[in-house]
Structure formats: C-alpha cells, structure tokens
Write a structure and sequence with these properties.
Alpha-Beta Plaits, alpha/beta, TIM Barrel, 2 domains, binds iron/sulfur cluster
C-alpha cells in the first residue's frame, strides 16, 4: 500500500501537543478558497509544464512521468506556482512502513505524529497502518481533517487515533459550500461523534469576513458544540485568514484584525469555551 506524500516535517510545534513529526499527504476532496498550500490539492498529471519552467534542470520526463532530482533542486517553488493542477513534482509514493522509518529516527525528540494534507482521511487504510506502528512505540497520533469523511465508519483507525483536529470552515451549509464547494452535514456530524467519543482534540475556524458571515458562524458553532464540553474538554482555534501561499485569485480578502478575533473568542467564552487559541 503506497500513498502520495507531499512532505514530512520532522519537527513541528503547531500540529498538536508537543513536538511532533507531521506528514502531509497529497490530494484533497474539497476546494477551500483560502487554502494556503494549494499544491497539495491535486495529484500530478505528468503534463510536464513544471519541467519546462524549472530553472535548475531538476525536473525531467522519464517514460511519460515527471522525475525529480533533489540534488539539483534549490527549493525555489517555481514548479508548484506554474502547475496547472494544484500539484507538485516533488511528491513521493511511500508505504506506511517507509513513512514510519522516517518517523522512527525522531522518536527520542517527539511526543507523537500528526497527519495532514491535502485531506489525509482519503487514505484511511494508510493511516491505520501508520498509527498502529506509532502507538506500538508509545507515540500519540493525531489527524488533521476537513471533516468530510465520516470517522465513525473507520473503527479500526479510530482505535489507534488519539484525536482529530477538525476544521469547521463555516457552520451554515450554504456558506460552507461557498467557502469549499462542498456541503458540511458530515463535518457537523463528525464533530458530534468525535466529541462524544473524546476524540475531538481541536476545532479550527478560519476567519475570512469577506467570504462568509464569520460572526454568525462562530455563534452558531459555539451554541452547537457547547453541550459536548461536558463530555470532553476540546479546544477551539480561531485562525485569521492570511494571503501567504493562497492562490492569486483568492489572495484578495482582507485580513481580520486582532480586535475582531478577540471579539469572536469572547463570543465562544460566553458559550463556556475556556481553551481558545487565536492565531
Ligand atoms: S507537478 Fe503539475 S505541472 Fe508538474 S508534471 Fe505534475 S501536474 Fe504537470
Ligand atoms: S523547487 Fe521546483 S522549480 Fe525550483 S528548482 Fe526545485 S524542482 Fe525546480
């Protein structure tokens, strides 16, 4: 079993508790307008556009497939900027064992692993195998997900998953479609299921006032999730939209100011949330 891996970050302090190795899988099933790593969205079509644009000759076509030479690459990112398919020629096809070999080297220095994307829940069998190995070595395991795939359908995966960092990109379904091109019924039912099973580590809301009604969304989300605090004390991350890395056509939204983010956090406090992080 191999999946397409965009990159592995040996040490991250922003993808869950403690120092963690974070694995980014390639491929996503929705289209967040503010996606800040759009090169993880699509699978490579081997069209060759990036090959012709690489200034260092690090890319070539071999038997109809793009080939990447790490030695020649200067990490200028030209390839991902010119790719017409929101992909990258620098991905690797790796099995759970091959990914875990890289994790294993960091074990003395990390508390656990997190898997992100793209949307990593498109690869539940891979996650299950990877997490089994991590748990056997005493590491904690977290999934970063857009919530569009039902966790309840993967009990074996959930047995070896310590928690999920779940995006609620808009509470209202029509607004969620506007933000992501996808509905959110499954996202909200996932939030409930994860909270009830004490697997909801964190809920994330990206604040883009130009794109959807962020205050209404935060209010409705707070009211909806508050009853589950009694089951499990999860945290909420209020994240300001920033244009870095965003596709050109969506880099035009205004960045919300700190005062407004504080105001939204206060709304959540009114519903009983204590653990709120603003970034
Ligand atoms: S990474 Fe993008 S531009 Fe390069 S070959 Fe693949 S699909 Fe084409
Ligand atoms: S980042 Fe991409 S375009 Fe730049 S040198 Fe490396 S392969 Fe070539």
């Amino acid at each position: 079993m191999k999946v397409t891996v965009n990159r592995i970050i040996p040490f991250s302090s922003v993808d869950g508790p403690g120092n963690r190795t974070t694995i980014f899988l390639q491929g996503c099933n929705i289209n967040c307008k503010y996606c800040h790593n759009p090169e993880t969205r699509g699978l490579c079509q081997h069209c060759g556009v990036c090959v012709d644009n690489c200034p260092e000759g690090a890319l070539s076509m071999v038997d109809g497939r793009v080939s990447y030479d790490l030695e020649k690459c200067v990490q200028c990112d030209t390839c991902i900027h010119v790719c017409p398919h929101d992909s990258s020629p620098r991905t690797q096809e790796l099995s759970p064992e091959e990914v875990y070999e890289r994790v294993r080297k960091q074990i003395p220095f990390i508390r656990g692993i997190s898997v992100s994307g793209g949307e990593c829940m498109l690869q539940p069998a891979f996650l299950t195998e990877l997490f089994r190995m991590a748990k056997a070595d005493g590491l904690t395991t977290l999934i970063d997900s857009n919530g569009t795939i039902p966790f309840s359908e993967y009990p074996e995966l959930m047995d070896v998953t310590d928690g999920v960092m779940l995006d609620i990109k808009a509470f209202d379904c029509e607004e969620h479609k506007k933000v992501t091109d996808a509905p959110n019924e499954v996202v909200l039912s996932n939030a409930v299921w994860l909270a009830e099973h004490a697997k909801l580590y964190e809920v994330r809301a990206v604040i883009v006032p130009d794109l959807y009604d962020t205050e209404r969304s935060i209010r409705n989300m707070g009211a909806f999730l508050a009853p589950y605090l009694a089951v499990h004390a999860f945290r909420i991350k209020v994240i300001a939209y920033r244009p870095m890395g965003v596709r050109e056509e969506y880099a035009c939204y205004q960045v919300p100011d700190q005062e407004y983010l504080n105001y939204l956090a206060d709304i959540l406090r009114e519903y009983g949330f204590q653990n709120i992080i603003i970034i």
